[in-house]
Amino acid sequence: MDTSDIEKAKAFIIVEIIEYIPNAVVSKTIIKKSTGNISVMSFDSGEGLTEKITPFDTFVQIIEGKAEVIIDGQSHLLESGQGIVIPAHLSNLIKPNGRFKMISTVIKSGYE
């Protein structure tokens, strides 16, 4: 993803750097390194992420709206401001509860 409009050493309002697009999930990478990445994502109503398993812990935080995060079959309803760590190697699914935006942080170090 293009990060050219995220200027380093300059403050920004995270919820304003990404917009909703009808019937779509939009992702914008803030930082991408070999040891991990931070992305902000917007989800239109009815859009979500498919179930997956990743080899790394992932921290997700809802920054606008609500979403259901299902980890290894256990449901967690998160609202704006709430976050959760999705453990590595567990199935997880992110489902919308209307439109929402979130930050996703993946740290890859420590798994060598």
Q: Please, could you describe this protein's structure?
A:
This protein has 112 residues and is mainly β. It has strands at 25-33, 36-43, 49-52, 58-71, 74-79, 83-86, 92-107. The protein has one domain (23-107): Jelly Rolls (Sandwich). Strands 1, 2, 3, 4, 5, 6 and 7 form a seven-stranded antiparallel beta sheet that branches.
Task: Provide a concise account of the structure shown.
The chain is mainly beta and 112 residues long.
Shape: globular
CATH topology: Jelly Rolls
Rg, Å, rounded: 14 Å
Oligomer: single chain
- State mean pLDDT (0 to 100 scale): 91
> What share of the residues lie within helices?
under 10%
Q: Please, how many domains?
A: 1
Q: Which H/E pattern describes the elements?
A: EEEEEEE
Query: Approximately what portion of the residues adopt beta-strand conformation?
Result: over 45%
Number of helices: 0
The overall strand count is: 7
Relevant CATH superfamily:
Jelly Rolls
User: How many strands, what sense, and barrel or not for the largest sheet?
Assistant: 7 strands, antiparallel
Supply database-style keywords.
Jelly Rolls; 54% strand; 112 residues; mainly beta
Secondary-structure topology with pairs:
Elements: E1 25-33, E2 36-43, E3 49-52, E4 58-71, E5 74-79, E6 83-86, E7 92-107
Antiparallel strand pairs: 1-2, 2-7, 3-7, 4-5, 4-6, 4-7
